[in-house]
Amino acid sequence: MSSLVNLALVGASGVVGKKIISLLENKNIEINDFYPLGSSSVGDEISFNNKVHKIENLENFDCSKINLAIFSAGSKVAKEHANDFVKKGVYVIDLSSEFRYEKDIPLVIPEINGDDITNLQAPSLIANPNCSTSQLLMAISPIHKEFVIDFLNVATYQAVSGTGKQAVQELQNQIKDKTSRQEVYPKQIAFNVIPQCDIFLDNDFTKEEMKLVWETKKILDSSIEVQATCVRVPVLNGHSEAVFFRTKKESSRNQIIELLSNEPGIDVIDNPKSLEYPTPLENANDTEDVYVGRIRSQSINNENWISMWIVADNVYGKGAALNTVQILESLVEKNKLC
Q1: Is 0.85 surpassed by the pTM of this model?
Q2: Catalytic amino acids?
């Protein structure tokens, strides 16, 4: 990687921010200058590449020091500051949902629509997709290219880490003490599943469910019809998805397995006779791949349907930190940070 990257990381002390730092270190990505930024955490220390950095104040940061900023601090912070960074000549990668659905802002999974980065002519804002969307589209994109998906139904089983540190603590507290109050979630999460992620919208779907609809159409293909149910489960880390989709072209289980087995970033674990399939506990802790199993193919009313199970690390992996770092790598490879 080039040493031209002068990086500011907003939200460096957060769960995802720390994972981004870990990935940058693990991948040996050269960062020339590094500036962790925050508000309530100003003055705290962050270690990066064996060097201690003090978190600086986001409010008065001098953007002339950098050419790239990663925002990992939620929609409110992104709304207040991200566009100001862009106006000052800085590329911005934002992990929040604040800008994902704006027509002129690219929503990028590099393996799928990386050309959106190539086409950028000036410092711009790039949105990082929702965690559930990223792992879903990584798994179905190769299938769509080959067999053409026209209808998709997905049920997600989302870990509490997707809500943040307080949610993880709430689950741990409730496991120890069943009388512990729920503050993050509307119902007790320990020993339970909650069929609600994010707020309910006027159409009775939750915002999380509609993110899967909107983002699939924007990133992959606007003609795919999507229906989603998103569920919070008492798992610390790692999102799982049960996916059912119809293809216009006939396909078989063996064809799907062969296709996905040859895709970078996809790990197929599918051997029912040996009870081999991915789980978040086994496969989604500081892992980069999207894991696919329980692949089935069947004909229903002369239509071709595929079913599968998808697991990925929603924090370190493709759901958040990894995709962000891959966007950074793409910007460097395409000489956008010169």
Answers
A1: yes
A2: 131, 239
